[in-house]
């Protein structure tokens, strides 16, 4: 935690207490606690299975060291969530979701779900780049001529991982179900964003449907069905894209394929309070 965050507060003894402190500090609303042009708190969440640093890959160790340097030099908090810590977080902040979380058969699915949940409850997870003034400029849907000129601060940020023409089936040949598909591995959000709640509700509905059909999520039949599902669809980029598509259609009437960067040089697009970065932002 940044030294200034704990000067007037008791030193957190656990990562759960640290998360509660981060919520308390950022709820005050001071600009220095947020990414530029946004209400997204400067809180980095990283996940790894354990803290045995001597066994970590070099790139992970270097990444953690870099983030910790930012914590010391800037007003940014950093959390490293182990597998056990993720369970503790779910049980503390979203206890009603424990069965859903524990039923997911793959660790990558649990991690996907956790990252959405921690962003919903605490906020943060900055992406690969900061938000600039150019990113939040008005833009026009080149097909419908609808102009998007939101004056709201950014409260959620996602990046495109697939940007294909919707008419030539390129996305299917590349393995993407959506011609415009978002990535779930790098995103940022303020607390309680409706788009994240949409993701959680979609997943809960799907899991509850399986539970109802098989008499619970821990039955052999339910586990078999869950294991047969594609994690990309259940919790990964397809699930994030579906939630974003549904929410932005509801909140702003967005035509989803208007987000393409193929015809405007790859511009970022602000829709309501959600900023969508082009695929080139992650190269």
From TrEMBL:
Gene Ontology biological-process entries: protein N-linked glycosylation
One GO CC term on file: mannan polymerase complex
UniProt GO MF annotations: alpha-1,6-mannosyltransferase activity
PANTHER family: INITIATION-SPECIFIC ALPHA-1,6-MANNOSYLTRANSFERASE (PTHR31834), TRANSFERASE, PUTATIVE (AFU_ORTHOLOGUE AFUA_8G02040)-RELATED (PTHR31834:SF10)
Protein name per the record: Unnamed protein product
